[in-house]
Specification:
Strand order of the largest sheet: 1-2
Order of helices and strands: HEHEEE
Strand content: 15-25%
Helix content: 10-25%
Low-confidence stretches: none
Largest sheet: 2 strands, antiparallel
Number of strands: 4
Number of helices: 2
Distance between the termini: 42 Å
Radius of gyration: 15 Å
Mean pLDDT: 90
Length: 85
Amino acid sequence: MTPQAYQTARIGDLERADGWGPIRAVLDVRAFGINSWTAHEAGGTLIPAHDEAPSGHEELFLVTAGHARFTVGDDELDAPAGEIV
């Protein structure tokens, strides 16, 4: 039997109690980092403030439901579902 050339997963099945979903680890993605974050309560902090400059990493956020507020430098961004930051 030929090994399957792809995998599937559902974010809800990957999600830990803190809302983090380790997509990269579960799907064994090695070319780039990919994770999910899920909030179950409005108004809280989902991802703590951090700076990727020292690591040189880039981040992309896709809001799939509801909306999120991002602070990037001095800019405040309201991102509804479908927004990519």
